[in-house]
Design goal:
The chain is of the alpha+beta class. It has helices spanning 8-16, 99-114, 119-129, 131-134, 144-161, 234-244, 248-257, 266-269, 323-335, and strands at 30-36, 39-45, 51-56, 72-81, 84-93, 181-183, 186-193, 200-203, 216-226, 273-283, 309-312. It folds into two domains: 4-134, no CATH class; 144-335, no CATH class.
């Protein structure tokens, strides 16, 4: 094997080109030359092609508490490798600009393992030595409203996944859909607020509150109060969703569409929330809204572009549906999912 073939960046580059051994494994990998009792170490890529190292663990091996960094995602996971379920320590670089440093970290981990250190000890000691380069104070966080909106949509997604592992197929918002969730002619629009006293909702376009043709639209209004130690955050809801989803990688792909590259990162988890309440409104002619039908001739006046507006839900109290109706709507939405 050439010197180049022993460099981590060489393997990540080939993986990005689709050069890996075809198998039935859950994710493409390339073997390193280093092997431990539980199997060989492997190079892999994250959902957005992030550099990644998979280190096999024995059943009795304990990882203990590992350092936390905004540039690294480190967690124990299980994956099918060579046809069997394998316990792994999954180390991924989430900051593209630090990939060259991460490559040095990986080389050092491999060297220490070759010298006889265990997987957990090698990772822990190497990260300690590279702390100054990798463990930086986070400099970027997602906008508050983006975090709040994603938590609200993930909360609704998890409710639907409790009914069917195929419910992710109805999540249309990240794919540019007019409504956040839709199956058949039934659609849900999710709006979240941090205060129960805030009855205002921003509407981004004239067609956002249009029902699907021949169908029905409901607005899910969630009150999620910011709370230190709150039970609801992006990471927790994401991990709950992929544990129930028929195709976990699809959830990751949908989050990428929302610029959420790492749902476990500080960038998306500096806020947590407590659930304070939910109202579901039927959007119909009695609901306060503006559509193209609101204009003469059902057509936007010439020269008017990109209409957005605000509504007050205090004027829609009569449109709130019951809990029983909510359950029937969710069941109907699941039943409308396209057959596999």
């Amino acid at each position: 094997m050439s010197d180049a073939q022993q460099v981590p960046s060489y393997h990540w580059s080939l993986l990005r080109q689709g050069d890996y051994t075809q198998s039935k494994d859950e994710l493409p990998t390339r073997l390193s030359t280093v092997e431990v009792a539980a199997g060989p170490l492997r190079f892999a890529l994250g959902p957005a092609h992030e550099a990644r190292l998979l280190l096999p663990l024995t059943k009795s091996e304990k990882t203990g508490k590992l350092p936390v960094s905004s540039a690294l995602r480190i967690k124990e996971t299980n994956a099918v490798i060579d046809g069997s379920q394998t316990r792994l320590l999954d180390v991924m670089c989430t900051a593209k600009e630090l990939e060259s440093v991460f490559a040095e970290v990986v080389e050092e981990i491999l060297r220490r393992i070759q010298e006889g250190d265990s997987v957990p000890a090698s990772v822990r000691s190497t990260l300690h030595d590279f702390r100054a380069l990798l463990f930086q104070v986070p400099t970027k966080t997602a906008p508050t409203e983006a975090v709040l909106g994603l938590v609200g949509e993930l909360l609704v997604l998890n409710e639907l996944l409790d009914r069917s592992s195929e419910a992710w197929r109805a999540w249309m918002g990240p794919r540019g859909g007019r409504h956040d969730f839709r199956a058949g002619n039934l659609a849900l629009e999710v709006k979240s607020t941090r205060s129960a006293s805030n009855s205002r909702v921003d509407i981004q376009s004239l067609d956002q509150l249009n029902e699907p043709l021949g169908g029905r639209l409901y607005m899910v209004r969630l009150t999620l109060e910011s709370s230190a130690g709150g039970q609801l955050n992006v990471s927790g809801l994401f991990n709950r969703a992929i544990s129930r989803c028929s195709e976990p990688e699809k959830i990751k792909e949908l989050l990428l569409e929302l610029d959420c590259r790492d749902p476990d990162s500080h960038e998306w988890n500096y806020l947590s929330f407590s659930f304070e309440g939910e109202d579901i409104f039927e959007v119909n002619d009695e609901f306060p809204r503006m559509t193209e039908d609101s204009f003469v001739g059902s057509k936007t006046p010439q020269g008017i572009q990109n209409v957005s507006y605000e509504i007050d839900l205090n004027y829609a109290r009569s449109n709130i549906i019951s809990e029983n109706k909510k359950n029937s709507i969710q069941e109907e939405l699941i039943s409308c999912l396209s057959p596999l």
